[in-house]
Amino acid sequence: MRGPDWPIATPGQAVGLLGGSFDPAHQGHLAITTEAMKRFALDRVWWLVSPGNPLKRDTPASLERRVAHAADVAHHPRIDVTALEVQIKARFTADTIAALKARYPGVRFVWLMGSDNLAQFHKWDRWKSIAGAVPIGVLARPGHRLSALNGTAARMLRHSRVPAGLLAQCDPPAWSFANIPMRSDSSTALRRAGVWKR
Ligand SMILES: Nc1ncnc2c1ncn2[C@@H]1O[C@H](COP(=O)(O)OP(=O)(O)OP(=O)(O)O)[C@@H](O)[C@H]1O
Ligand SMILES: O=C(O)c1ccc[n+]([C@@H]2O[C@H](COP(=O)([O-])O)[C@@H](O)[C@H]2O)c1
Q1: Which CATH superfamily is 14-192 part of?
Q2: What are the sequence ranges of the domains in the chain?
Q3: End-to-end C-alpha distance for the chain, whole angstroms
Q4: CA 38 to centroid of ligand 2, rounded, Å
Q5: 8-state DSSP, 142
């Protein structure tokens, strides 16, 4: 885990950004990250442990605890666990992406999300400008495949769908859907099972 410093990326590198509450991080996060690296040809993935999802009402566990636990789960040489949105002072993804693109010119950022988030994407703040700013890699999640592919965002962006292997090199708007072996892990289930207490 990198503390308050900034992760390293050099121009031309393809860096996936997996934003999330990570309340707590789980094996599903790790699995989609390693699949995303392979399928979307990413050099690294940064986990952005968010101060709070603007669409969620519940208060998550403390950021410090979530980051520390995520760093334990993401034991991988090409994953950086960060709290960059605190450093950037951004709550909305559109602002996070704008700040990272300004700070890392020439780095090819790809926004990653599970397909549950694609189904909701049209409700995000400035979602069209996000789609115009970075390629988006979507990873299949149980129960959210068809709803995502038939949802508002997927339909409006239907002409921008590209093959997974080309995604990171495409200029946005560009998105790709990876039909990975699906995993049922979820933070909600871990909280409900009492494995993680807020
Ligand atoms: N099992 C999974 N399969 C595919 N994508 C996943 C999976 N778990 C999490 N994701 C994706 O990882 C990102 C971060 O997820 P998040 O931290 O909210 O975990 P979560 O398990 O979805 O949490 P919660 O149950 O609290 O909503 C989101 O884009 C989410 O869609
Ligand atoms: O910017 C938005 O409007 C927005 C709305 C919903 C979710 N997000 C981001 O999507 C990521 C996944 O959120 P979550 O809480 O489902 O893990 C995380 O980085 C959030 O900040 C962003």
Answers
A1: HUPs (3.40.50.620)
A2: 14-192
A3: 21
A4: 23
A5: T
